[in-house]
């Protein structure tokens, strides 16, 4: 059964480790992540962006697939199904569809409107037992064709949004989505520390976990980061393994074209990536 992400993240914050949010794109992704979490006895959060939701045939389709796997694959570790960077309407759709956690990304609204909508969604999510994440400031990336260097959130604004009753909070500390540029300045631990001073026990979320060096990840965890989002890294690992299979001509040998064979190296690459991240985040054995 899916669970809210609140308890697993409160435990992570208290225990000084982080739980990975791994974004899913299809059945292979989902199965690889769930099986790895079970094998390593780690809690896990499956992230679904609005785009991935559409791609996979809608939120209800995803809820059906994930719930089916939890039962048929005997997954007993805590699993949360979380809407990633959801708009206002998508949040309600996911609450209805049976997700166990949502993120409301109101970062593009003026702060007053972001606050109003966040308050309303906190009440709606909590009424149905879901956890909710909010974002302060905006986390850059190359999505708009421009690579942002990563803004830093205002700690006072973080405290204000934290007080609205969200269960965990994403704040920009120089992190960005996608691959990091060569001249990236690194994470701002000063900002992170200032945010944690004001928000106390609230678990903090680090978006854009791909390519942040291990020592920075560990330091961020020591300063209150309890959830780390990983998306691009699994995509790169999947693509590289699939490329290798095709370039070796294996799809043309025997029944190598069978999708169960063709997609197997990519699925294994996702498992390896998830394992590596869980080791780095310290969540193994914490289920
Ligand atoms: Zn993000």
UniProtKB/TrEMBL annotation:
Co-factor note (free text): Binds 2 Zn(2+) ions per subunit. One is catalytic and the other provides a structural contribution.
Residues bound to Zn(2+) 1: 85, 177, 207
Alphabetized GO MF terms: fructose-bisphosphate aldolase activity; zinc ion binding
GO biological process, one term: glycolytic process
Residues bound to dihydroxyacetone phosphate: 178, 208-210, 229-232
Keywords tagged on the record: Lyase, Metal-binding, Zinc
Residues that coordinate or bind Zn(2+) 2: 105, 135
UniProt-annotated catalytic positions: 84 (proton donor)
Enzyme Commission number: 4.1.2.13
Cofactor(s) required, per the database record: Zn(2+)
Domain of life according to the entry: Bacteria
Residue ranges crossing the lipid bilayer per the database entry: none
Lineage, uppermost ranks: Bacteria, Bacillati, Bacillota, Clostridia, Lachnospirales
Pfam families assigned: F_bP_aldolase (PF01116)
Descriptive protein name: Class II fructose-1,6-bisphosphate aldolase
NCBIfam families registered for this protein in UniProt: cbbA (TIGR00167), fruc_bis_ald (TIGR01859)
InterPro entries registered for this protein in UniProt: Aldolase_TIM, Class_II_FBP_aldolase, FBA_II, Fruc_bis_ald_class-2
């Amino acid at each position: 059964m899916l669970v809210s992400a609140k308890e697993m993240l409160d435990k992570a914050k208290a225990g000084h480790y982080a739980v990975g949010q791994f974004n899913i794109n299809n059945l292979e992704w989902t199965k690889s992540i769930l099986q790895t979490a079970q094998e390593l006895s780690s809690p896990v959060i499956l992230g679904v962006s609005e785009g991935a939701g559409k791609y996979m045939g809608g939120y209800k389709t995803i809820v059906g697939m994930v719930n089916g796997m939890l039962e048929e694959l005997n997954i007993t570790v805590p699993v949360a199904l979380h809407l990633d960077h959801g708009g206002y309407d998508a949040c309600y759709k996911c609450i209805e569809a049976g997700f166990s956690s949502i993120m409301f990304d109101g970062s593009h609204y003026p702060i007053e409107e972001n606050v109003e909508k966040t308050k309303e969604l906190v009440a709606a999510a909590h009424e149905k037992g879901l956890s909710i994440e909010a974002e302060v400031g905006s986390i850059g990336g190359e999505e708009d064709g421009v690579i942002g260097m990563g803004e830093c959130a205002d700690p006072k604004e973080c405290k204000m949004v934290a007080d609205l009753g969200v269960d965990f909070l994403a704040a920009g500390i120089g992190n960005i989505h996608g691959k990091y540029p060569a001249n990236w300045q690194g994470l701002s631990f000063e900002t992170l520390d200032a945010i944690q001073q004001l928000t106390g026990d609230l678990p903090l979320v680090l978006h854009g976990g791909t390519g942040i060096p291990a020592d920075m990840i560990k330091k961020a965890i020591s300063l209150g980061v309890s959830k780390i989002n990983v998306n691009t890294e699994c995509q790169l690992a999947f693509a590289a393994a699939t490329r290798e299979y095709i370039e070796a001509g294996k799809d043309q040998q025997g029944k190598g074209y069978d999708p169960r064979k063709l997609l197997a190296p990519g699925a294994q690459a996702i498992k390896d990536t998830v394992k590596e991240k869980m080791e780095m985040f310290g969540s193994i054995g914490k289920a």
